[in-house]
Specification:
Helix content: over 70%
Number of helices: 22
Shape: globular
Distance between the termini: 57 Å
Radius of gyration: 22 Å
Strand content: under 5%
Number of strands: 0
Length: about 475
């Protein structure tokens, strides 16, 4: 790699961090964005989208006929770098999921987080069922979209921007390049609907007295609204577990994340090779060559955590530090994904996009209102809010809604939600099933996948209603 190339990459990253700061400044100045709890990364990404080739660049080119500013205020080289970042950074995000996370006993996870597991999986499988039904009945025969479009609701609404961007290479590999932009657009709709509809639900619950612990959106602290933590409320971002004389603690934890990704890479390459010399060549059935690295990087992180939990007597792995690495990777991922979003693709497929968006939002609302009180009879609203928020985009939305509903943590909502992730994240919302859903549709066709997802949806539905729903224990 030449020095000029390195300079381009470095400058593109510098500009991206500046865009993040601009996003934060805009959030501070616009009360509406504070009320919607929009992350600065999404605001910054939207800012870059407006001033990039899709909006400002098109306007200037159309009005002047000069393509000198075809990329808006940015350059083509910047966008080339930004377009590659999501696929790289999503590996960091998922490798961090379980490093430093103390995994409790399975019995405790199941007892406390079981209802959330059942509800979360039921919603995820339902998103596949509805999405594939729309694909085989409308989107493919009428609009000539690839059948893989049936997986987009779950990829976008439960997986979020990170998962959607991380599957860009998979979309390209199956010949459905427009799927990436549709998924990113739907992820934005998902987060907005999660916050807006979630706040509506909370206001309804506050008026109706659904629970005794519920807070009110108008009572949110300045910290929550502005995103700036006041000095008296600040906590440490991490602990120094290694001496900087020997190794910088941040470097040590970054090394663990890199090792997790490398382990994931070796595992994935092994299965690609195994598939090629066994069932792949024998039956022309290839799946792993379409599976992205990030869910396997998560497995690498789990392997590291298991090893460290048994050998790390000094407890040198600090979860808070790992979370900071994960956080900056996710921020940069969202900015780069939003900045390079193709509005042209969404415009060309606006009717399918609206159909998927409406279907996803309506499904989440109906599933929450109907299933949460039946699966979680004890503190169903507080606990169900977390699942509703996550089913619309990111776990952070679910946590935020739970903090509004139960600001003093008087219910087991937050704990149950955390336990849920241990059994939930490895499979859906960006996990193995999410990553494999497109290859499965490609190899087996949408109907067999639809049947499998329907069976899973019914199974978890019954588990939640007939088992957890009848258990009054908290």
């Amino acid at each position: 790699m030449s020095s000029e190339t390195l300079e381009v990459v470095g400058f593109a990253l510098i500009i991206m961090t500046v865009i993040l700061l601009i996003g934060k400044w805009i959030r501070l100045k616009v009360p509406l964005f504070q009320k919607l709890f929009l992350p600065s990364s999404i605001i910054g990404g939207f800012f870059a989208l407006l001033l990039g080739p899709e909006v400002l660049g098109r306007i200037i080119t159309a009005t002047t006929g000069n393509e000198a500013m075809a990329y808006g205020i940015f350059t083509e080289n910047m966008f080339d770098v930004w377009a590659e970042l999501p696929g790289l950074l999503i590996n960091v995000v998922f490798a961090c999921l379980f490093i430093g996370f103390a995994i409790p006993r399975l019995q405790e996870i199941w007892k406390i987080g079981g209802p959330q597991v059942a509800l979360g999986y039921t919603i995820s499988w339902a998103q596949y069922v509805v999405g594939i039904l729309l694909a085989v009945t409308v989107l493919t025969p009428v609009f000539n979209l690839d059948p893989a479009v049936g997986a987009i609701i779950e990829i976008s609404f439960v997986g979020g921007h990170g998962t959607a961007a991380g599957l860009g290479d998979t979309f390209a590999a199956v010949g459905f390049e427009e799927g990436l932009d549709l998924a990113l657009g739907l992820a934005t709709i998902g987060i907005l609907s999660g916050v807006v509809v979630g706040i509506i639900f909370i206001n309804w619950a506050a008026r109706k007295g659904v629970t005794s612990s519920i807070g009110h959106p108008d009572d949110l602290s300045t910290d929550q609204k502005t995103g700036i933590i006041q000095k008296d409320n600040r906590e440490s971002a991490g602990e120094l577990t290694t001496s900087p004389i020997s190794i910088e603690p941040l470097s040590f934890h970054a090394g663990l994340v890199g090792l997790a990704i490398f382990i994931g890479y070796l595992i994935l390459e092994f299965f690609v090779w195994l598939e090629d010399v066994t069932w792949g060549s024998a039956y022309d059935l290839y799946l792993f060559e379409y599976v992205p690295l990030f869910p396997i990087a998560m497995i690498g992180g789990i392997i590291i955590q298991i090893v460290m939990s048994r050998t790390d007597k000094s407890e040198i792995v600090d979860r808070a530090t790992v979370s900071r690495i994960q956080g900056i990777a996710l921020d940069l991922l969202i900015v780069s994904a939003m900045a390079t979003l193709s509005l042209q693709v969404i415009g060309d497929n606006i009717i399918p996009f609206v159909i998927l968006a409406v279907a996803g939002v309506v499904l989440n609302v109906v599933m929450f209102m109907y299933l949460a009180p039946r699966m979680i009879p004890s503190h169903w609203f507080e606990r169900g809010m977390g699942d509703f928020g996550q089913s619309t985009g990111v776990a952070a939305t679910g946590i935020m809604l739970m903090q509004i509903v139960d600001p003093e943590n008087r219910t087991p909502a937050l704990k149950a939600f955390g336990y849920k992730q241990i059994l939930f994240e490895p499979m859906v919302g960006g996990g193995l099933v999410t990553a494999a859903s497109i290859p499965f549709i490609l190899q087996f066709g949408p109907i067999p996948v639809l049947i499998a997802m329907t069976i899973l949806m019914i199974a978890f539905w019954l588990l939640g209603v007939l088992y957890f729903g009848k258990n009054k224990a908290e």
